[in-house]
Design goal:
This protein is α/β, with parallel strands linked by helices. The chain contains eleven helices and 13 strands. It is 37% helix and 23% strand. β11 and β12 form a beta hairpin. The mean pLDDT is 94. The chain is globular, with a radius of gyration of 18 Å.
Length: 303
């Protein structure tokens, strides 16, 4: 049981400004916030912290600016025990930021404010010691960097977990197909699945990606649960029923839990359940990264 597996995490880190409101405003309407808080975030960075809290070793591969937000990003990684040897600080740049509004039902609206976050050249990925890692998780990655990441991982026999997110899924298979076809595990939510496959129906979209060459497809469906699909088997694990306060980071937490399951020797079905438990723990608290559970909390939750 490789609990202490070391995972390279390639993608973006950011600082999130989270505003809690009773309801989202309509066009030309003003609402007053119930709270305004800043948290270190970024989907891929959240996964790195989630992995570390669950007992794996994680190294973050990305960039930040030399501003206050960049300091917040690195300081939080250091506090959480995430390795920052490959975090590049560009002193004259501004770090990535997002603005997230969350309503009383735990639903969210996200605005990306831009900023420096991603590796931009293949020589930046080539500096990474791939033989030192047991797996690589790829979130956001630029098209010119993706081939280098795939090549290095394949040379070392390193399993690839890929979660492109909505923005990159919208590019379609013609743009991100290299990673889709070469990853060992593709993780998407239901809207992303349909967007990436170019199909409106779930089953048609699943089959499209399997036909394209996806080895193992994981699809999350929010409050319904999550599914695992491959050429050999299919599983669906129902979500745990909890009172959601903030859904921010639920997908990232699920991903960390699923990866933990894989490297713990769990079956696909058990890994789905572990991911669902991590997501359920996360949505009961405010914030994305701050709500990421630790192994003891998840074990207690599952019972």
């Amino acid at each position: 049981m490789a609990i202490m597996a070391r995972i390279a995490v390639l993608g973006a880190a950011a600082v999130d400004t989270i505003v809690k409101v009773e309801q989202f405003p309509a066009a030309d309407e003003i609402v007053f916030p119930q709270s305004i808080d800043k948290y270190p975030g970024g989907s891929t960075a959240n996964v790195a912290v989630g992995l570390k809290r669950l007992g794996l070793e994680a190294s973050f591969l990305g960039k930040a600016g030399g501003d206050t937000e960049g300091f917040i990003i690195k300081e939080d990684f250091d506090r959480e025990g995430v390795d920052t040897s490959y975090l590049i600080i560009e002193k004259e740049a501004s770090s990535a930021q997002t603005f997230i509004a969350v309503n009383s039902q735990g639903e969210r609206v996200i605005y990306s404010l831009g900023g420096t976050a991603l590796y931009e050249r293949d020589d930046e990925i080539n500096q990474v010691d791939f033989p030192g890692f047991d797996g690589i998780y790829i979130g956001e990655v630029l098209e010119n960097v993706a081939p280098a990441a795939v090549r290095r991982a394949r040379q070392c026999g390193t399993p690839i977990f890929y979660s492109p997110g909505g923005l990159f899924c919208s590019l379609g298979l013609e743009r991100i197909g290299l990673l889709v076809a070469n990853c060992d595990y593709l993780l998407v939510n239901l809207p992303e699945l349909k967007l990436l496959a170019g199909k409106d129906q779930k089953e048609a979209a699943i089959q499209e990606l399997l036909n394209y060459g996806v080895r193992n497809l994981i699809v999350t469906e929010g409050t319904l649960g999550s599914g695992f699909y491959s050429g050999e088997c299919r599983y669906f694990a129902d979500a745990f029923k909890v009172q959601a306060i903030d859904s921010t980071g639920a997908g990232d937490s699920f991903t960390a839990g699923f990866i933990k399951g894989v490297f713990s020797g769990l079956t696909a079905e058990q890994s789905l359940k572990l991911g669902n438990a991590c997501a359920a723990c996360t949505v009961t608290k405010m914030g994305a990264r701050t709500a990421m559970p630790r192994s003891s909390e998840v074990s207690k939750f599952i019972g």
